[in-house]
Design a protein that fits this description.
Number of domains: 2
Order of helices and strands: EEEEEHHHHH
Number of helices: 5
Number of strands: 5
CATH architecture of the largest domain: Up-down Bundle
Helix content: 40-55%
Distance between the termini: 76 Å
Radius of gyration: 21 Å
Structural class: alpha+beta
CATH superfamily of the largest domain: CarD-like, C-terminal domain
Length: about 180
């Protein structure tokens, strides 16, 4: 059981702080104990039945070292994904429900890179934004940074390979232009 001030992750919603544990009769079925969770990055309050915590896969936040590893996992090429967007969407939804930071990071990376290549459906764009928000919320709590800083870290990690390639291409273009100027 979690306690007040514990930092936890609620899959599909993000990371937050347990601000209270309350006995409430919300549905006239008798009192039930709830965690009151404040999702810091969204400034939102959520009530979660304590007896459903395992079922909805609530977990403690990760360490800064795990965040570093997650950011490293964002480098590289697009991973294997179903070409059928509706099946890909269903697969990614299951991953988001798991709350596994590395699997969610893969969804963010793959959808971001796919979006750069050919664009995404509206549903997948929303999913990408939601998955990115999930990562951001945990980074905000673990690293004690702003949402903007966390977002920049994710974007830089995903874009690092692209930026290296762009710089290399620019340098080659500049070198060719310089060669052309020297020949004239």
């Amino acid at each position: 059981m979690y306690e007040v001030n514990d930092k936890i992750v609620y899959p599909m919603h993000g990371a937050g702080v347990v601000t209270d544990i309350q006995d409430l009769d919300l549905f006239e079925n008798g009192e039930e104990t709830y965690y009151k969770l404040h999702i810091v990055s969204e400034n939102m309050e959520i009530l979660i039945p304590v007896n459903k915590a395992d079922e909805v896969r609530i977990r403690p936040i990760v360490s800064p070292e795990v965040i570093d590893e997650m950011l490293k996992s964002l480098h590289g090429k697009i991973g294997k994904m179903n070409k059928n967007w509706s099946k890909r969407y269903q697969n990614n939804m299951e991953i988001l429900k798991s709350g596994d930071i590395f699997e969610v990071a893969d969804v963010v990376k793959n959808l971001t890179l796919l979006n750069r290549q050919k664009g995404l459906s509206t549903g997948e764009k929303k999913m990408m934004t939601s998955a990115r928000g999930f990562l951001v919320s945990e980074m905000v709590l673990v690293l004690d940074i702003t949402k903007e800083e966390a977002t920049d870290m994710i974007n830089n990690a995903i874009g690092a390979e692209d930026e290296k390639k762009k710089k290399s291409k620019k340098k080659k273009k500049a070198d060719k232009k310089e060669e052309g100027n020297l020949e004239n």
